[in-house]
Amino acid sequence: MCGIVGYIGQQKALPIIIEGLKRLEYRGYDSAGVATIGKNEILITRMSGKVAELEKSLPTDLDNGSLALGHTRWATHGEPTERNAHPHIDCEHKIALVHNGIIENYQAIRTKLEQVGHKFTSDTDTEVLVHLVEEMFKYTDDLTDAVRLALKEVDGAYGIAVISVHAPDCIIVARKGSPLVIGIGDGEHFVASDAAALVRHTRNVVYLEDGEVAVLTRDDFTTTTIDNVEVEKTVHEITYEIEQIEKAGYPHFMLKEIHEQPATISDALRGRILFEEGDVKLGGLNDVIDDLRKAKRFIITACGTSWHAGLVGEYMIEQYARVPVEIEYASEFRYRNPIITENDIVWAISQSGETADTLAAVREAKLRGAKVFGIVNVVGSSIARETDGGVYIHAGPEIGVASTKAFTSQLTVLSLITVLMARLRGMSVTDGYKILSDLKNIPEKVKGILDQTDYIQDIAERFSFARNFLYLGRGYNFPVALEGALKLKEISYIHAEGYPAAEMKHGPIALIDENMPVVVIATHDASYDKVMSNIQEVKARRGKIIAIANENDSEIERYANFVIRVPKTLDLFSPIISSIPLQLLAYYIAVYRGCNVDQPRNLAKSVTVE
Ligand code: G6P
Q1: In this structure, how many other beta carbons lie within 10 angstroms of the beta carbon of residue 281?
Q2: CA atoms of 390 and 410, how far apart (whole Å)
Q3: How many angstroms is it from 514 CA to the middle of ligand 1?
Q4: Ligand 1: distance of its center to the CA of 303 in Å?
Q5: How far out from the chain centre does Cα 378 lie?
Q6: Helix axes 574-592, 453-463, angle to 10 degrees
Q7: Ligand 1 pocket: which of 1, 305, 377 to mutate (most atoms <8 Å of CB)?
Q8: Could you read off the pLDDT of 47-95 as tens digits, one per residue?
Q9: Active site residues
Q10: What span, in angstroms and rounded, lies between the C-alpha atoms of 38 and 12?
Q11: Which SS3 state, helix, strand or coil, does residue 590 take?
Q12: CA-to-CA distance for 519 and 604, rounded, in angstroms?
């Protein structure tokens, strides 16, 4: 949520900033801006709209410096207008600041600063930060100290970068709650909200932790706490390739990511299956096997699509490992005084590893004495670093705002955790082997579904004018109904609801008429017969049925208007398989409606504010 990029080095800074902002646009894309240091004053260019617009309107005389900051915004306080775009500057135009996060006590600070003469020009919470830094120059003439003093006044979350004519050869960065990564080059340093903005320039990065302030110069960087205690930082290496964050010929990242799933599911399995033992090996859980053995209850916490994966996890783990599981929205868990008892284990699922509510839920659970494990995609992210153990899903960078490949990789990892837990609790080698053999075939089966893209595209075209959609599923496929509906509303702005098929009778059935498309996941599993009855109830009310059904099911054709075929799997893997056609359906409907698939309105990929 909001992307920050900063550069100090030997090269022209602005092309690096603009390229970095484009890579971070998935974090927010309603306005953008840059700041450089001119002759004794800060120069800024800001616009509402996308980074490409900003790039076109950059004045040429801004283009010479080797130090700059940039920002792409997802509005929290204040409309997405030019005056609210970052960077923000102080009264004298000597200091510029970009911010990701929310300053909760900004109103009180603003009032105080206005009383002593500061003039505000935006409606944002962020602007108080830059005026606070300016104010602190009354007490110090050192920019880093001024930033430290300012940060001590604020409540809330921030990742910030600051430049000033008072110290024209450095960038000051600080973090509390919002991610920042420093890139280390040769005679140059970078800062960004996400390593994707740096990977073209350097692979060596340092992750800033909460409460840390760093000073970047061309040749060096130093990190201290907000109280000015020096901190030793470890340099990490970014492992992914630049191609992974490009579209590779696909029109959208989302389509590329849908098509990557046979490979990403294989990557989530690689080196983790022990066939002969009917078991799995998960390196990140090796040291906590005893805790897992003793676990009396799992609490899974997450947001959005990751929450849907967690719901499938609940069904899998309870069925096979017989461990009671509760699934909680992180935003609810963190504030509702949850009960954590001895031997409870909390699992946080997050693609980005930076979602503010999930991170706060992790911290809350730790505070209450729980062991907390992560199921995370982004290596080195905050949740990955702050949990006591966990499993990376290895899906590679996911750029499309609507999550696709991360979801199926989360399900794959949850399947492995299910087998691990079940084997710890008495499942036989043979049963473990059977499950793992079926799991191993999933990537091939996903490929088969992707081959039906043309047919799904055809269905999408027919329904692209629908105003509402209903998604129904039971058992393992109830979470898939939720996820299918979420995908459609996120990217096509069609109202869609996911429901447990039987619950339809308690409300949504009132909506069904000949104009209502109803997607029913009707694979041949334990609840097949019940789902068929639900289909007939829809048919009786002339709803248009799009069924996801197994290849050998001829019965379904009598009731459904369209049938998308998927191969048979064990019930617990049905969500991986069934979600693929729903991703494609949502994608093509959005394309037919002319929507911006990768950057849907009002959304952001990584929600780092609560
Ligand atoms: C945002 C994204 C969703 C994602 C959710 C949770 O809403 O648009 O795609 O599922 O955040 O994100 P996380 O990174 O924690 O999985």
Answers
A1: 13
A2: 12
A3: 34
A4: 6
A5: 9
A6: 50
A7: 305
A8: 998 899 999 988 776 657 899 999 998 877 778 889 999 999 999 999 9
A9: 2, 605
A10: 14
A11: helix
A12: 26
